Amino acid sequence: MLMQGQIRVGNQTSCTAASPGLPFGYAIASGFDTFEWFPDKKDWGQGWLESDISSTERTNIRKKAAQQKITLSVHAPLVVNPLRGETYDAFINTVGFAMDIGAVLINIHLFNQEGMERYVRTLEPYIRHTAELSLKLSIENTPDISPDDINRAFELIGQIKHIPTDHVGMCFDIGHANVFDQTRNDYIRYITTIQSHVPIIHIHMHENYGDWDRHLPIFTGPAGNDPTGITAFVAEMKRRKFSGSIIMEQWPQQPYLLNNARDRLLAIFNDDNV
Hints:
Layout: E1 7-12, H1 21-30, E2 34-37, H2 55-68, E3 71-75, H3 88-101, E4 105-109, H4 115-132, E5 136-140, H5 147-158, E6 168-173, H6 174-179, H7 187-193, E7 200-205, H8 222-225, H9 228-239, E8 244-248, H10 256-269
Parallel strand pairs: 1-2, 1-8, 2-3, 3-4, 4-5, 5-6, 6-7, 7-8
Helix pairs in contact: 4-5, 7-9
């Protein structure tokens, strides 16, 4: 059986929700114990940014999360890319929001356009700043990122000695792994190629049919008919002694699908035979 608090499962804001507070309120009502805020405003106005959340609202978020024992994380806006120095200010803005609401982790994407050496060099200010504020920093695989990219990035991060790096880890996105060209419809091959020096500290959970990044709730796509892949994934996470938040990255028209997914996922984690 899992230790209480070792695995937390919850949901995330969505640009398709009427307000960012709607999915958060649902998390509270459903007894979820983790939640992720994702500032994601589209060009046509749908969604939200940190500036849309007032200081009073931020304080209320912090209080509600503390009262309900909900661990909060923040997904940096998609524009944030260490390779583009002009986006660092957007990251700092996200950090300020995270601190205001009492989040413990910030998630950013990994980019491989200029190689891992260049990415990790430009990542150092992000590592330093989050270390100074005792925030965890997770780095996520996008659909273009290979397991080799991940392995190399964390090999290089491990070689950094002049700033703390023990708060930095990977966010494993299971749906992105499933649409990566070389592991299409085989996210288990992707995760088992991630080497042991890579600490997985955060998970984004959704599924697809290997065609595109659908962000389906788990057990409503392929796993609805055959949960073998999810079970194998959980077994791998248990082998790695994963401890952290699992974020369901969707806001379905039928929100109860989130409750079903959470309950089934925790049941698999708590199965001593897995």
